[in-house]
Design goal:
Length: 296
């Protein structure tokens, strides 16, 4: 199959473009919307809401913010004293611990490859290294969650491996990966390298949009979070758009190494047959040599 990562700012029309392509060519095109994929992954692990609920029910002496550093010994001491209580509030999560273990193990593969994540997830790395050989589910969970406090990032990284494998096995001729995070160069490089790890050369679609249009779309949106404030499908409003604009890094041919790149204007993305033909034969569009920002 032909995998294309679709990058654009919120409101640029990238998700609408992907859905139109799938609707126009259902036998040839498939779409993976990574916001939805991550939500499914979180639900498989008990749901972030269940985990947040677990933390909210923890005694104040254990739940964040902690007055003292949390150590494996302090976690074991709390469990020894309140094991029955923790067992009772752990029941909603217990069926998902196997999936959680697998995803955390997948995430470990990313630690060595992508050092730009380390400063964000070092506590989780340390907690996981201390917990991974523990067979007791509750103790494992407490060590990772209470000792690490970065579970959403770990789920994101561990879940990506499965998404990339799912993309590689997809039988459709064209697979579009829709992810808002692709506006940053580091995430784009991570996607490209990880897809190469599963035997796929990925290509990139950039959808720039007028800044005035993006602001108009954002003004009509409210921030939506479908998983209780912990994670979920984002629909950025004006304040969130401002953050995304600061976050975005232009596509730069000199610094990036994609096999093919297409830059699609808002006028072009609606011409599904024309775009499909360019995806089939990217040489028709020529090389994109100048840096390409995501808004103008």
């Amino acid at each position: 199959n032909n995998i294309w990562c679709v990058a654009g700012l919120p409101g640029s029309g990238k998700t609408t473009f992907c859905r139109k392509m799938k609707a126009a060519f259902p036998e040839e095109v498939d779409v993976l919307e990574l916001d939805q994929e991550r939500e499914l992954l979180a639900q498989e692990c008990g749901g972030v809401t269940a985990i947040v609920g677990f933390l909210n029910k923890m005694p104040a002496r254990v739940a964040p913010p902690w007055s003292e550093p949390v150590t494996p010994a302090s976690i074991d001491e709390v469990l020894g004293r309140d094991r029955q209580y923790f067992e009772s509030i752990f029941e909603n999560i217990r069926p998902y611990v196997g999936a959680l273990r697998a995803m955390l193990e997948n995430a470990q593969e990313f630690f060595s490859k992508y050092p730009f994540y380390l400063k964000h997830i070092q506590p989780a790395i340390d907690a996981l290294s201390l917990a991974k050989d523990i067979e007791d589910d509750l103790q494992f969970f407490m060590r990772v969650i209470v000792g690490g406090d970065k579970l959403p990032v770990l789920l994101f990284l561990g879940g990506l491996k499965r998404i990339f494998e799912k993309s590689a096995k997809n039988e459709k001729g064209i697979v579009l990966l829709d992810d808002p995070e692709l506006i940053t160069r580091g995430i784009r490089e991570m996607f490209r390298v990880c897809l190469a790890d599963v035997g796929k050369e990925a290509s990139l679609i950039v959808i720039p949009a007028p800044l005035a249009y993006l602001r108009k779309i954002a003004a009509g949106r409210e921030f939506v979070n479908t998983l209780g404030g912990a994670t979920g499908i984002r629909k950025p409003g004006p304040s969130e758009l401002k953050q995304w604009l600061e976050y975005a890094e232009p596509y730069d041919h000199a610094a990036e190494n994609w096999s093919n790149v297409l830059v699609l204007s808002r006028e072009v993305v609606s011409r599904t047959e024309y775009v499909r033909d360019m995806i089939r034969d990217p040489s028709r569009a020529g090389q994109i040599l100048a840096p390409t920002p995501f808004h103008y």
